[in-house]
TrEMBL record:
Membrane topology: Multi-pass membrane protein
UniProt name for this protein: Cation-transporting ATPase
Location (main, coarse): membrane
Superkingdom in the source lineage: Eukaryota
Domain Cation-transporting P-type ATPase N-terminal: from-to ranges: 147-220
Gene3D superfamilies the UniProt entry points to: Calcium-transporting ATPase, cytoplasmic domain N (3.40.1110.10), Calcium-transporting ATPase, cytoplasmic transduction domain A (2.70.150.10), Calcium-transporting ATPase, transmembrane domain (1.20.1110.10), HAD superfamily/HAD-like (3.40.50.1000)
Transmembrane segments: 31-53, 223-242, 396-420, 432-454, 901-919, 925-944, 965-987, 1042-1059, 1071-1091, 1111-1132
Organism expressing this protein natively: Buceros rhinoceros silvestris
E.C. no: 7.2.2.-
Top enzyme class: translocase
Family affiliation: Belongs to the cation transport ATPase (P-type) (TC 3.A.3) family. Type V subfamily.
Amino acid sequence: MGENPVKNHYAQLNQGEENEMEIFGYKTQRWRRVLCIAGYILSCGALLLLFYWKPEWDVWANCIRCSLEKADIVLLRTTDEFQIYSRKTVTWISVSALIKSRSDYPATAEEDSIFSKAIMKPRLQVKSIQVQKIRYVWNIYAKQFQKVGALEDHYTCSAIHARFGSGLTCNEQNVRRVICGPNTIDVPVIPIWKLLIKEVLNPFYVFQLFSVCLWFAEDYMEYATAIIIMSLLSIFLTVYDLRQQSIKLHRLVESHNNIMVTVCRNKEGFQELESHHLVPGDMLVLKEGKTFLPCDAILISGQCTVNESMLTGESIPVTKIQLPQADNFKPWRMHCGEDYRKHVLFCGTEVIQTKADDRGVVKAVVLRTGFSTAKGDLVRSILYPKPMNFKLYRDALRFLMCLIAFAAIGMIYAVCVFALNGEEAGEVVKKALDVITIAVPPALPAALTTGIIYTQRRLKKKGIFCISPQRINMCGQLNLICFDKTGTLTEDGLDLWGLLPSERNCFQNVHIFPADHSLPWGPVFRAMVVCHSLIVWEGKIQGDPLDVKMFEATNWVLDDSSGHQTEGQGSTHATIVRPGPKASSVPVEGVAILHQFPFSSALQRMSVIAQEIGGEQQVFTKGAPEMVAMLCRAETVPSNFESKLLLYTAQGFRVVGLAFKPLQAGKRPTDLTREEVESDLSFLGLLIMENRLKRETKPVLEELSAARIRSVMVTGDNIQTAVTVAKSAGMISPTNRVILVEANKIPGSFSASITWKLLEENKTEDCGSLEDDSQTERRIGLALGSGQYNFAMSGKSYQIVAQHFRHLLPKVRAGLFNWSRLAIHLVEEFQKLDYFVGMCGDGANDCGALKVAHAGISLSEQEASVASPFTSRTPSIACVPELIREGRAALVTSFCMFKYMALYSTIQYLGVLLLYWQLNSFGNYQFLFQDLAITTVIGVTMSFTGAYPKLVPYRPPSQLISPPLLLSVVLNILLSLSMQIFGFMVVQEQPWYSKTDIHSACLSMNNHTENSSSISSLGLNGMRDGAHGQIDNGYKSYENTTVWLLSTINCLIVALVFSKGKPFRQPIYTNYMFILVLTGQLGICLFLVFADIDDLYSKMDLVCTPTTWRISMVIMLAVTLAVSFLVEEAVIENRPLWLLLKKTFRYHSKSHYKRLQRVLEKDSAWPPLNETFISDSVAVSVEENTEGHSNPTFDSNEGAL
């Protein structure tokens, strides 16, 4: 698709987004279509099935290239490494019924809107496609498909107020509704017949159908019937599981699809309608009382408190404030920056409280509808999960291709042998096709998933739920885990430890909580009483845990239902706080909180405007101490501010700064900007909170560290606090140095600076000691992750480094342990270094990171966690090593099963090809016994082995095409081939051997008369020893008996040898079911070897052989077992041997982080300390490719011992 001779044939959809796609235009050609239909008929539907599997071939065969503007079919291709194609038909939407006259054209009212740019005149039609539930329409002017269902990003704050503040007209609303479609997140329950057809058309089942037809043609009735029953059972279970998931998802979303809402119509006033009629731009009126939001909306008047647990996983009320009427040219989202979310109400969240301002009702403009909303995006991520690029599955496909090539050789051999011996053409074809069904095991995909299913069940018993089973194997490869701090590593709640008040530029004595004496009435006490965003919800005070603890310490109560009269400004709905029964006496009746500026993670603070009842208005601010101090007048900040702050943060306390100022009367609180309010403040002191580590945090992190799995902390806390918590948790070794990387833009220029400072715990910076430390650091050979230094960095600094110091980025990433928020970027950066990244968080701010990580583990059972592959019922990080253990066990089980299935099919294939030489084969019951009684039962029970309880400091290999695994398969194939050929050849050299008389060996031992009667009774079936007339049972021969018995017991040997235990799975003897099955099967096989029961032998197509030969076969098998076991243990599983080989041949890991580690070990100037670089003056580059995502896992293990 590189060449595009047709102009505008190609474009990009969702450019720069996660679901970016390439789109190609095609036009159906009638004669091509006719030829394809003829092909469908002539191929009996095979061509149609091929096109179903390969939609791009369907488009290329039926259509010709054209511009996207003229296309009636579009071909989509994902831009990721999978390059998945999909075919979409272009549809036309007519709006002619809604536009009666020229004055009704949307273009007259909204020239810049996509709705006016999409209507083709004079036909009044809109060209559209639907991709993954999102509708795209053709922009006539931009000549591209654009997403509808969302308000365009280009509107400014003032434009949103002006354009949509009065609502849409009825006609505008109708046109938008037809173009956008209904505002519903509709996930219909998929009919069983659809699921059934989709499952049956899977290539695996099509291959099974081919195999079954072939077996029926060859009269393998019993085996074919057994396979049909097993396949039907498998299909039924899969369809049932998919149906249950579909019902669950349908129930999850249907409740919010159709609720009654009030909208404001331009010139028509308020109107009630069903929520599925809402369109982007509608004016939504929010009434008092609880309600669920049916869309995403921008709040433009009033204030709301919402419960966003659906999105964040935390049931903490969040305050939303109106979009400012800023008069500038910046789009509204750019103007609001990172805090745009504080103005947006998200679909599916619950509005629990509304507060109107003095202008009337609470209003919001509909921002996004349907699947374009935040909740719609969550549901789409479940409906269309991102495919996982895991080497095991790619290698499995390659190995399957090798087996098919192997089978092709066998087919050619079979055709040659049977054709040269004059067999009928039909018989030759059947025998040749039979080779494919033997060489390529139809049960292979099922066998690979068996281990994952059992692991999923074990995880469920341990309280870990999984919605993406294919990621379980990936958990076995995790070598870096990112942890959210608050609520994940530490307890959810904070304890108020103390207060360090400040008066007249000096810190006073610290006030420890709980104390006998209460705090005196004053600005500090007033700040604790009002500077929060708490509400009364369901009879309890709800809000941020920090706010709750601070407010509870005052013994005041919250009265959230009263109005408050503000002098000269009418009545507004305000929160009143009053002294409680246990509170000390104060000279005021209460304090009213008039207006809030909610906490902003970008600004690191929150503020309120409050007024004592009958008193003056005051501003109170709380937030990060450094940030609050910057907003205060210098003369109010104590001179020892930094040393005091360091004293408490170095002990792991969470410290909050408090400030206030009186507010001059005149302006309404709602008219004041945040910049006006948060300036010239007076510093009040430091609030000291204690956030204790969870009991299990330290042992879990120590376990991960011992297993050489790197841990990284994600937090928005003070860096020093985070470092202390990390050290006390064991995340950072006490001997390691922590280097703070700070990057800042230089005012008035396009340059930036980056500074490297050593963080000291108990002392302020000392130049001399830092120089010593720097020299010491440079003398030590540093190893990444487990070396002598770690980097701590804020999200803001990272963005500047990425922009101005990109050459330093890989080096900084490699040693990073702490990151301030922006978890999703952190995960992606580590993935670029070829780490397998796990993310563990409570879901509050980490939903994106949980989805992006190779394994996201949410400690929240809220709905948001549905987008996380794993959810732990217990809010403890103990689930992380448990998941890694089970992942490693599942991965090793998958390898064991793959090797076993490959060997079983190869053993059977070699045996059949040997017998083909004599125009013979295995009998029906012989195949049945091997396939069902041996392989199927082993396949089911081999995966029962549980995970080994200890995490070893290296990972299992992730690829089948690794030397140890390939060598294991090849050596065992050669061993099996040698044994079968040896048995095949040696039996022909025995003195009792006869090619024509299959009873010659036992004539001297058995009654001759009985044997004669047996011969005459078997004459009906015939023996293929020259009499070609016999059809059914021409399999009996000494070679058949020898080869079949050897190959059958060889399957048991291979199963035992490949069932690995330590270090990733429990010893094989703990899998009682497998050992019992193996013992039973071996007993039956030995019984078949030594039994001399005519009826049984006749049924199994076996012949009697002397006891000495039977003992010889057992000896051959014992030698094979000994050699196979020795090879597996002494060579294949001998890790020191492979490491020595790698060292001898100087083989190094290709993983980016390993290569970078080797570069940095040789760099004596890294890391820089007490140095500042300016972006313009730095010209260093690292040759490493920072975009790679491959992770050759076995290769990366050489340094793990």
